[in-house]
Predict the 3D structure of the following.
Amino acid sequence: MSYIDSIDHEYIGKIGYLPIYHPLEEVKGEKWGAYDFGASPKNLVLGGGSGEHPGLVIHNLPSVVAKYLYFNLTEEEEGLLTQEEEEYITDLYYTDEEEILEFCGWTVRQHSDLFKMASSELMAESVGDDEDVEDWIIRSIGELVFFSLPDLNPEHEKLVKIFSKFTINATMSNVVCIPPGYPTIGGRKIENSQIKWGIHRWPNTP
């Protein structure tokens, strides 16, 4: 068992070798970056913590989505935004990476392995030559939340309204999910005082 298995959570999919989890309850961590991390339903978590791979807690999902959407605009399209829209997006966009990505007990080796994974040709969209791996994670997860997990983003409707004048394509496609019919993995929830395993965001039925 891993640390994530001690709390209720649902399995979302994977990005490379890192599973993606959504906590279904709040758990307090010792401090920012602690190996046994704190998280809540407002977060996504890559890696399950002790017993698995050190966790990466993703905070401020509205900012993550805004960064993904804004990245996809051309200069010409940026010019079509009203001043009010520009100010709204700017407030969401300019959140420091350090306030979004919480690496919990990661070693130098694991950071290096993450970059190798993100650079791999096996990824649908690998990290760019002049891009930080942190930006690559944010864009990949921002795309996931925008298209598939809008309920985790309280700013979803407003962002959709602003960006509806543009064509937003799935430019990353780095998240993979288990196909229908495969055995479920990950995810747990306590129901009627009993632990139920195999809790997936999208039911894994044929």
About this structure: Residues 60 and 104 are 16 Å apart (CA to CA). The chain is about 30% helix and 15% strand. Strands lie at 9-15, 18-23, 44-46, 56-58, 101-103, 175-176, 188-191, 194-197.
